[in-house]
């Protein structure tokens, strides 16, 4: 059976000549039977050939697990031809999940102790490819000895094996610290590159190693300056750039060594400027070096001029014809926009041009960066550009673009009219893609702008007459027509073109909305309510409105049926109350103080609230139940008065407490959230004079390397509780353990029931938008008993 076995070349030829999968499978199965028989017979002369054929079958995807023990036998063989195939089989067939890999530890140790370079190289390659943590601990002393061997071939492989060991077992770093200092003086390119990689791994995993290798920063600076200014052998140059792989690796190591260390950063500042100015960016190799230089400049404590130079390099990347380079530049600028906003602003026209990229990934990154660049000085220009992009962008980007424009308008709107016009244009262009709270926010905005009621209702009527497919737009228009229909008929608005509107035209338009197959049940509810309100705004006969209400009194939709039945009851039984019930909504001051019906505030409190308005960047405080938090803000939500951000008597008066410092209650703090360095902690205080009141201070800290921006926290409690969410101290949580952000929650628990708290966090971190919703049900008992 063994004699009829094929040679490796013959097996490859037969497999390639197989015309079907079945023929190939037949050849493999037949040859695997020969291989099994050979292993069983123990043929020492041809076993390496049989294993080579089995490895080829393994590479084609066929099972080869029965060759694992044969690999161990060949590795233990004194013949080099056997060891070569045995080690190759071990790398392909063995891994950490199989106990058999531990059986070769002794063989590798013996081979590393031999003086044969080829055998030592095979053992080191196998150990670096599949060595487990146990093997690394057992063989670390042998690898350390080989780091200082005379042979450059062995030293290079030993360095790479040490890198694998550090990644597997970081506590082995102390063993490899001494040899690394000597290996930095190597002239051999492969050894030097491997040593830099090894030191990088050590510094990332060991604070002691990081402190130890900060002493070699001048030596690394000298090595990199030599590469940049004088170059090295042309053998390692790529497209005219001297050894870009070594340059990139040194820059990465310098970035780690200079992070949060003033002296090291000062040492490398001049070098980074030389690299940034002397590297040719016309080739990919040069662009890679420049990009790594930019990352290093931004991560260390570099000079301000150097940071501007780094941003300008990224700006030049945006003009590159390579899409990958442009994508990298957009991603990097997005990370820098918070720390170097003014420098990134200089490249705003180029970023806006990237919005027109046909590549979806590029246009998405350009959109995120454009939204991050919007501020109070350029909001008009940027919003106009973004609205143009919204009209032509792909459906995948419309939701993000529409939401971004609405958020920017809410934060930086110069006037209320401009704000209303902006939202209306977004709703007209991409109404189906806006956030769920866009309708409530626009209604609140229009309701609070008394001088713009006539202008708004006429604009919305015209937009609704042209298109009734955009449901959010239809809902806002229906609300405004019902609320300010009398202003629509007056026609005395000087800010819009003359528009003659008759009562029948308004009623016909709302009936058209009710009958449209595109209208959602919620939209029909808005239209039905608008018709009912118009019964008190218009001066004509209400028979047409009564007929509509009668028709919808038998509607299949329960919500619409209930509304119509109640409205019919107003007409028939309580017609004398209809005018009072359907009065105009009271004015809502956006972001201003609202009176809570259950709160008893003195005149002094009201004066303090008026004297300290809430900034427009922060969301207004809302009393929300659990459903409100998940379904979006309610348009009828009451807004409790915000606290004065300054500590002292104001806080005490707002809470109706005595003018004495709040005693600290012995309630333990509770950490409720942690992700990528962002931590959220709750601390509790129960004022002695008000036992049903609980004050929760929410503290957000950030230990990561990037700022957390646009941080918004919303809270919800069961309906038996009363929640007042005060304005936060800011919307940015600085990186590296900077000043924490705090926010006060005031919870009234009249029944002293167990407290459950649901939180929703939205923020931007490392260029990504994050939303987290979670429930806190393990609050200390002292918070409610």
- Name the poorly predicted regions: 590-665
Largest sheet: 5 strands, antiparallel
Order of neighbouring strands in the sheet with most strands: 1-2-3-6-5
Binned, the helix content reads 55-70%
Distance between the termini: 84 Å
By oligomeric state, this entry counts as single chain
Name the shape in a single word: elongated
Mean pLDDT: 82
Helix count equals 35
Organism: Rangifer tarandus platyrhynchus (Svalbard reindeer)
Region (Disordered): 592-616
Protein name: AP-1 complex subunit gamma
Keywords: Coiled coil, Cytoplasmic vesicle, Golgi apparatus, Membrane, Protein transport, Transport
Write structural notes for this entry.
With 785 residues, the protein is an alpha+beta fold. Helices cover 57% and strands 8% of the residues. It is built from 35 helices and 8 strands. The strands form 2 sheets. Strands 1-2-3-6-5 form a 5-stranded antiparallel β-sheet, with no helix packed on it. The chain has a 3-stranded antiparallel β-sheet with strand order 4-7-8. A hairpin with a 2-residue loop joins strand 7 and strand 8 (768-776). Helix 6 packs antiparallel against helix 7 and helix 27 packs antiparallel against helix 28 (503-515). The protein is elongated and about 110 Å long. Mean pLDDT is 82; it is low at 590-665. Residues 1-28 form a coiled coil. This is AP-1 complex subunit gamma.
